[in-house]
Design a protein that fits this description.
6-stranded mixed β-sheet; single chain; alpha/beta
Amino acid sequence: MAIFPQRYQNIAARCRNTEDGGADRLVDALTDGVSPADIGILARRHDLLDPVEKALHLRGIRTQRLQRAGTWEPDSLKLTTLHASKGLEFHTVAIVGLQAVPDAHHSEEEEWRLLYGAMTRATYRLVLGVCGEGCGWGGRTD
């Protein structure tokens, strides 16, 4: 059961005419009744989360970055890196910035293992986002 279903339905109606398909997928999850606390947004690096966070804030959707110590706010989407997602589980996971994988500073095998581990954080829905340099969400593969 959704916490704010009507609110997210209104946001979904405003999002339909944008090119921001990744954000639309997350809004779809919210309108389907997924709690914001059950949505995780992951990226290889922290800076890749910035455009996603901005796009969601423009839609009136609260987000929260993973902190080392602390608790999650129940009414916000969670943002963290692939590494920090270890041990976490979400109904819906969006992995953004796939153009940054594999990272040239790490072994390709380890990078694919890290990505696989992050993909398994999703228990129901997985959204994969990839784009060219500097495009934020941009195009997606899902």
